[in-house]
Amino acid sequence: MIRSTISCCKSSLLIFMVLLTFLGSNIYGQEEKKSLSLTVQYIKIMKENSFLKITAKFKGENGFEPCGNVNFTVYKVDTTDVSTVIKIGEVKTNKEGKAKFIIPSKFKTPSSSYAVRLENNKTFDDTEEIVTVTDVNIIASIEKIDSVYTIKARLVSAADTPIAEEVLKAGLKRLFGNLSVGGEDSYTTDEDGSILVPIEKGLTGKKGKLNFQVIIEESEAYGTVIANINSDFGVPIVDESSFDERTMWSPPTKTPLFLLIIPNVILIGIWSILLLLIINLFKIYKSKN
Amino acid sequence: MKEYNKMIQDLAPKKFGKLGQIWVTFLVVVILFALYAYYQQLDKGLGITNMRDYALWGVYISNFVFFVAVSLVGSLVTAILRLSGVTWSTPLTRISEVIAVAAIVMAGLTIIIDMGRPERIYNIFLHGRLQSPIIWDVLVITTYLLISLLLLFYPLLPDFAILKKHFADRPKLSKWYGKLSLNWTGSKKQQSIYSKSIHTLSVMIIPVAFGIHTVTAWLFATTYRPGWDSSNFGPYFIAGAFVAGAGAVVVIMYVLRKVYKLEAYITDLHFDKMGQLLVLLCLVYIYFNVNEYLVPAYKTTNEEAQHLYGLFVGDYALLFWSVIIGGLVVPTLVLLFRKGRKPLPLFLVGILVVVGAWWKRFIIVTPTLLHPFLPIQGVPKSWHSYFPSVLEWTITFGTLASALLIMTILFRYLPIIPIHETAEEKGFLETEKTETL
């Protein structure tokens, strides 16, 4: 009796341990999804397009790491009823965790909301980020006022109503950012929604071409709006590189001619004489009588 | 005829005595130690030296400049004195030519020793830029080496023919001397080619010798650093080279005279004349030194002042004043007196001059490197000073021993004093011809 009880206990313990092992491994094998940090910026480039700039990161072992190769779905949200959404497209992030989604023109309205969602991803939690913007335009041009080139920019709504008291920036596009022009960091629009930015003389550009930008930067209401103005009144950059010239710091193929000719003439002269002197040794050898 | 035969007997190469064998063994041992040290350097890299970011040139480059300097003596004694019509220098020409060849060979090898990756040396020839003074140095050293070899070999032709006859009882040796004499019989045609060739070499070696040391000076002067930024560096180096070379000749001629009992050929007159030449060269070199140190000291720009302070009263003061006073001023004062130009005092002065000349190169190279215009950031404090490591010293002594070994071997198989020329000057050859007739 006692023996059968012990045997029963042993079998129960074995079953319990096997179950525990399987259950435990199952619990252990279920990886937790990571949370994602999503940033969405609305950017409008005048006369070109509007797009959403999406940046996704997650907190990894080495701090924030880019969340690359992940698909996001973009929806247009009804501004009156947030629960009504229309899917307008999908976009995948690159290695740096960034993506650019160009908004189709048919989905643009004077006031729009866009939702960017991460849905049903194996690694990351579902995430959503909504941006709401009012469509505005910057009409910019360059005019000569009192013989000074001046940027004239006007900020208006989609219905062409001027927008006052809004901060705009004016700059000259350079390789790593904008060079501010006019002496101020930013300009506030007047009642007519306009700003005037005088341009300093002597700005340089390739073949005199200058690309100015008037920008509303990361406005809560309007997002980022950029107007480009191209001009050609800059001072042309003269290429002063001596890369193709024969200089003292060039590679051997571009040695200055005087350094190539003079030492070689001297060397050839000396070595020719030395060769003759060696030939003289043969002559001595051959002329014993 | 008897006198002629006695002269050949006196001047023909002789086997090493016991002292000679000990000397060669000693040199070989030093060289073996140096080879071991160099193996360490090849294996572990230049990290085994004390050269770092500041002192990127150290004892090897000082030693290289010293060898180049000493090699100039070939052009001084053989070419300049020969072309000036000086006859007393005849017994010294072979000595100076041998010194020149040994020194220039070791100069070339020392540069390779200074390289971290010597197996990549072919890149100098593949990718060398003529804009770089280092390439000029490579070209001029190679040229000078060939000229020095030819200037040593040409005057040996008649001597080899004499030795072929002299060693007739030793067929193997005689055969070698015969081969090296290039069938020299002293025929009119041979004499004519021989004289013209030696004259051409004597003329040619002077500009090339000036070139080699000027270019070596430009390695420094074309680098913008306190102590080197001088348009005077070329002549300053040449003047110093003649002092070092003349000092080396004085020391070696004294030793050879003693060992091979050449008192009848290298006389007190030769010591007196070499003494006079050396004092003149020392005075010229002192003049250049005054120029080199006085002008920057007068201007006292920050960096130059720091550099000169280090030399005059700072870390290098003892070495600097020892070199200037011991290696230049004292020799000059001693040599101004006739008694100072006697063989033994001149020999001692010669040693002072040669040792001073070696250290002079060290204080030209190192202190300047420790005071760059742009201080090097983030390096340990120990890198701000430099003194060679034990392995560096071993390798350096090895190169000096190698130069001495080359000289010893050449003096073993070549007549130290030109036999043919001496016989010609003493009129023995005329007598021999008459007697033959």
Structure description:
The complex is a heterodimer of chains A (289) and B (437). With 289 residues, chain A is of the alpha+beta class. Among the domains of chain A are: 36-134, Immunoglobulins (Immunoglobulin-like, Sandwich); 136-236, Immunoglobulins (Immunoglobulin-like), CATH 2.60.40. Chain A contains two helices and 18 strands. Chain A is 20% helix and 43% strand. Chain A is flat. By secondary structure, chain B is mainly α. In chain B, 43% of the residues are buried. The chains are: A alpha+beta (289), B mainly alpha (437). The A-B interface holds A 248-252, 255-256, 259-260, 263, 267, 270-271, 273-274, 277-278, 280-281, 283-289 and B 127-131, 136, 139, 143, 146-147, 150, 153-154, 157, 182-185, 187, 189-190, 193-194, 196-197, 200-201, 204, 208.
Q: Span from first to last CA of chain B?
A: 13 Å
What CATH architecture label of chain B applies? Up-down Bundle
> Helix proportion of residues of chain B, in percent?
over 70%
Bin the helical content of chain A: 10-25%
Query: How many beta strands in the DSSP annotation of chain B?
Result: 0
The number of helical segments of chain B is 18
Main beta-sheet strand count, sense and barrel state of chain A = 9 strands, mixed
Q: What is the arithmetic mean of pLDDT of chain A?
A: 88
Radius of gyration of chain A: 37 Å
What oligomeric state is this?
Answer: heterodimer
**Tally of individual domains of chain B:** 1
Task: Give the CA-CA distance, first to last residue of chain A.
Answer: 134 Å
Please tell me how large the radius of gyration of chain B is: 23 Å
Proportion in β-strands of chain A: 35-45%
Low-confidence stretches of chain A: 25-29
Unreliable parts of chain B = none
